[in-house]
Design brief:
alpha/beta; 6 strands; two-stranded antiparallel sheet; 4-stranded parallel sheet; 4 helices
């Protein structure tokens, strides 16, 4: 159908290096919402956009402490998502939030404990009881309220699909990420 999806990198900038991408996608979008009530793809896209943005996909990612994550989620919700949700424009993009994938480290909550983990804790476990990052995201972002859709990884039992070798956060490809991508396309 010609739909264009704009995926906002969880750091708000493309690549792992700010100099290679747009300095801060989220700040640009906030300025655009404040100025015009709309957002666009910006200038650093893989392909030139052919029309208005149809879908905005955002995921915070797992590389922040809980307080910073809460701050970024609240900012996204209040500064970008809510003003767009209130817009009556036919050009308004659908806003989809994808929850942060579950970490499956051998700790009480599956999370990586910076600088405090022994070799056994760095081993991936097949299942964890909860994903505190996704729980925080689902407390702040609500489908139909401040996002159009909330796409949950639902991956508490998928620890065996991680890269391993001390990396219990990133999944092997193809795998869970592909399933979430397919579910995203099914939304529209």
């Amino acid at each position: 159908n010609g739909m264009e999806i704009h995926y906002v990198p969880h750091g708000g900038f493309a690549y792992g290096n700010r100099s290679q991408g747009e300095s801060d996608v989220l700040q640009r979008m906030k300025r655009q919402v404040d100025d015009s009530g709309e957002i666009d793809f910006g200038t650093k896209t893989a392909f030139p956009p052919s029309g208005p943005m149809d879908v905005l996909v955002y995921e915070l990612g797992a590389h922040r402490k809980p307080r910073k994550s809460r701050e970024m989620l609240n900012s996204f919700a209040s500064d970008i998502a809510m003003p767009l949700m209130r817009s009556k424009s036919e050009q308004r993009p659908k806003i989809v939030y994808v929850t942060t994938p579950t970490a499956h480290f051998n700790t009480t909550d599956g999370q990586h404990m910076s600088g405090k983990m022994g070799d056994e804790q760095k081993q991936c476990v097949d299942r964890v009881t909860h994903n505190p990052r996704a729980e925080l995201e689902k407390q702040i972002l609500k489908a139909g309220v401040n996002v159009d859709a909330l796409l949950d990884y639902d991956d508490l039992e998928l620890g065996a699909l991680h890269v391993h070798k001390g990396d219990c956060l990133h999944y092997c490809m193809p795998g869970a990420v592909d399933v979430v991508g397919a579910r995203l396309l099914e939304l529209f």
